[in-house]
Backbone:
DNA sequence: AATGAATGAGAGTTCATTCAT
DNA sequence: AATGAATGAACTCTCATTCAT
């Protein structure tokens, strides 16, 4: 009963991260002040520094955290099925699923590629690696047409992210479920998926 | 013969824009100081304000300028051929062409979508509109499979931009020409291009 | 046998003072944080305030404590012999002795004259008073030449402190014992000590 | 006529240094805020940074400037006469002269030895070197008794600085001129100066 | 007595913008 | 048009001190 008194009682470090995430995606990292973060999180400005070394550290930790979470979900969903086509479909769905479930975290990850975060080194496995592996496997097994797996991953990820971007910014009003299915099947077309019946490259369905 | 006395003689406004572009893509807009711009452009800090209202105005004008230029090239190339498939191919090539010829401008446009510039309203025609129109036309003519033209544009643009991003960041070493061709043909696959022989949706080639 | 259980068992107030002394002389009072003191002393930051009113109070108490200790040693050594010359020699030796035995405390006292501590009023007897008294006595007894006792004290203390400073900072490599003797005899020269044979002040000039 | 409009017209960099010097010696470097310096100098806080890289840089530049000036005066005065005894006397007088003419600069130099400045590396010639050279020369020429020149310098400088300190802090009311003469002649006593009549070292002990 | 998270005033510093020249 | 010194608001970050536990 003492475990959780009120909403204010949850870990300040968590509240700071949550507040920062919302501000970062709306105003950018540099465009967000520590004063704003503190106010939104309901803590003092100085408190931020009890949990993070600097604003940059906070931004970076947030990035790594959500990248890991995102990659983890992709991995988990892809691992739960067998076969390159099934894995790819699962990964596409998980991608959309994450963007739908945690839109702020998703937006932050996307922004990260184009801002200060981009230069932050990371030798950890990234979401894209999941796609590269699945496609590589599919190509080797003859399920997908012969193509560079990195290029295939670029195509698939590109389609997904732009579809989400178009939808988020109101340029596309296709219902969510339909968009997911269309993106998944379009990915199959790009990869020359042949349903396993005969050599890749034919793809009639 | 008065057209170009020396490098210092060209329009200061031009030099300022050129300097700013390079700095903006490397350090971000907020991360770039007017002092740096002035120094790189070889003008005084105060001079910037004789040509632009503020740093934000400079950033915005740069964005609009290159967006226009980019869209213009896409338009021009697409208009020079006939038929949706040909137009689309031309647009895809022009997209890559612009990114190759003016990498800084291209990078700036891409970054713009995710930073301060994003909020800048624009009712002008954008690069994406070119794709939407071409695809819409192709769908109506039965050359492409039946699909939402905005979704199709999202897919195609997504493939192109990610392919360029992967290549630029060294994750993909496919030769330039080959990448262009692969992207163009993959776009056709996604759009269910049937070579004009029979109803879209079959796509064997 | 309860006197000293473990190093952690000794009085926290003592540990705090010891930690503070080391930090103060290396980084200055303002340059030392309470967090550092607490860490080095092995206590919590808050604990400091159970023993001292403030950081300034801690700095001041340290200063007074060592000033007293220093003056006490000078006094004690000087009192143990008779005659101005002997007393002065003893005081000079005690001065060097203190600097050698408790270099941190000595350094802190020296620094104190030039920093925040300087303004702290003190009507207590100070080390310099020992010298003033001895010299005044010597002058009145005709053992030293006629001179202002305060001036004489300034000269003697100046020689001692600079000699120690030069030695501590590596500018002087005279062995310790020799330096003490040289300083003591040089003090005698300055004070015109005539070995008691004939009236002081002989040194015609 | 335009050269000097008003007192406010003199170089802001100079006004900043002057204001900082006064504050630094009264409150210490860390104890002085940039806000105070700016206010006293009659400039904006930001202006300080048009002239100095940081508060530390300002403090350091001030230190070097006055050290150079001080050493220069000692050198100049010592060079204007011949013979070790005369040179030493001149140096002692110049030392007192500088402290009298520029008490703030003198105080700042003294404080510098005990604060942040102390760690600032300096391979330049320092005031003390003047004394070391003169004494070394005197010892070699037999004008002063045989002694380590560094030790001799420590004694002489110690006497001078303490005499000034005692006088400045009101512990000594000897008139200025007399104090200078007494310090000069006492220095001669310490160095065993024999008036040139017979070999140094005569002072049997 | 002991703790250490929380505080918030205030520090040094940056920088877009202005304006007298 | 061009300059660049001056500005001052706003920033990030520090740290002595407090206080609920």
Residues:
């Amino acid at each position: 009963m003492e475990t959780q008194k009120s909403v204010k009682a949850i870990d300040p470090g968590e509240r700071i991260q949550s507040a920062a995430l919302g501000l970062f995606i709306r105003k950018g990292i540099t465009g967000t002040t520590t004063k704003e973060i503190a106010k939104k999180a309901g803590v003092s400005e100085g408190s931020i520094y009890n949990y993070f070394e600097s604003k940059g550290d906070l931004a970076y930790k947030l990035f790594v955290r959500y990248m890991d979470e995102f990659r983890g979900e992709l991995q988990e969903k892809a691992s739960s099925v067998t076969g390159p086509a099934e894995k790819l479909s699962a990964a596409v769905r998980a991608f959309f699923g994450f963007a739908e479930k945690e839109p702020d975290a998703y937006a932050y990850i996307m922004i990260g590629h184009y801002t200060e975060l981009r230069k932050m080194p990371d030798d950890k496995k990234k979401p894209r690696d999941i796609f590269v592996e699945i496609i590589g496997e599919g190509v080797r097994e003859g399920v997908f047409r012969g193509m560079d797996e990195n290029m295939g991953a670029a195509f698939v990820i590109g389609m997904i992210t732009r579809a989400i971007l178009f939808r988020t910014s109101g340029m596309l009003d296709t219902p969510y479920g339909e968009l997911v299915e269309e993106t998944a099947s379009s990915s199959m077309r790009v990869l020359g998926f042949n349903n396993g019946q005969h050599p890749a490259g034919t793809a009639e369905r």
